[in-house]
Amino acid sequence: MISRRSILLGGGTTLALAAGIGLHRLSSISTDIRAPLLYAFGLYEFARRIQILSGQLSGSSQFDAVRVEEQVPDWNGEPLINREIHVRELSDPSSRAVTTPNNDTLYTSAILDLTAGPVEVIAPESRERYVSIAFMNPFNDQVAYIGTRATDGRGGRFWVVGPGHSSDVPEDVTPIRVKSNDLWMLGRVFVAGEDDLADARAVQSQISARAVNPAKPVRHFVTKPPERADAKSFLALTNEILARNPAASHTARASMFEAFGIIPGRLDAFEGLSPARKYVWSRAVDQVEDKIMAQVKADEKNAIGWTTPPRILGNYGTNDTIRAGTALVGFGALTVDEAVYYNSSTDAAGTPLNGDQTYRMVLPAAGVPTDAFWSLSMYAISSDQRLFFYENELGRFSINSYSDGLLFQPDGSIILAFQRERPSDPSLVWMPTPEGAFKCVFRAYLPGRAIREGRWTPPPIVPNG
Length: 465
Fold this sequence. Notes:
Elements: H1 31-53, H2 65-71, E1 85-87, E2 105-113, E3 119-123, E4 131-136, E5 142-147, E6 156-161, E7 173-177, E8 182-190, H3 197-204, E9 208-211, H4 231-244, H5 275-302, H6 320-329, E10 339-344, E11 359-363, E12 370-381, E13 387-388, E14 398-400, E15 414-419, E16 429-432, E17 438-447, H7 449-452, E18 462-463
Parallel strand pairs: 6-7, 15-16
Antiparallel strand pairs: 1-2, 2-8, 3-6, 3-9, 4-5, 4-8, 10-17, 11-15, 11-18, 12-13, 12-14, 12-17
């Protein structure tokens, strides 16, 4: 998941903030504007972010042009559409472009425009190493996957075909037919640790995306959103992305909000509203991000131990409330059959985690019910509540089910020691803690049924002594 303050080509992903959003309590947003606002918010965020990811917003500090130039030698500065970009590095304490960076997967991103015809995606075989290539539509739903789970590890050639195209697909190509013209493709490749990085990169290098008909022009957005949304640009970009995707899953629902200016293709809709409705829109758009973040923080403050995200992440149906909230704090969230993310900022008794204390967490001999891997990451909390890795004696920023540093007790369990100093017991797996407050994130990829159904959560974090 990508946070509001981050973008993939900057080098990471955020997960934790999506865990406990109680957005149904955003009651201070004016009642009459609430439904159209929440319907539109995920659309707006999708359109804004794919412009950043493809370089359509000139001068954006979140677009890594250096990375693009390294991987696309003939790049002329035009928006990068229907072309993959690999993120080759694992995050460390110097990674400050994003909050809650991931230390377990390499990422590959591509913005797809299917109006010009199919896009061919090449995927590696992935039976031995976890690989997931997800395709997200403008409503933030994950509409297709390639990878270890979805295609049983089978790679090869895939054509992503949009609506209105009945392309004949070659016999050796698997078609993926979608109802949206705009998609975000995000690939993940598991990395066990630094020693595994070269092998993981070799697998990642096999992922590519190219237009089948490269001579056909792609579309660029007309509406360029400002750094902080205003009502006029919010409505214009929402209506533009709707018009670009008339057959998408929930585009037809826009007719419910026509009186509020949500009209596919009407980029000047704000101008036609009454003064009262303009005022309400302006207030709502100006406040919505702050209100969502305030609610997230309130929910986290009241949480005890591990919290989990809503079960409908990545497949929201008509729940625009959760869709909007996740678009802000967990953009790109996978569905629960692919991954489940837990986070905790307190111990099992509800006391905030702090590096001045020592803790234990015991992973049972039965292990974690996943079909791919689990990982545990720890983050220092900055003054503005952002989460980052921190320097420590081991240079350890996360541990996973394939890490070299795992130590097993005689009964097969693993005891994790969260503390600042090296534990005297050499059989413990040391997770060095930072000074002050910190947060833990536990990720389960290809979760088993017990996790998917909510019958399993990570073991408690217990104060030592």
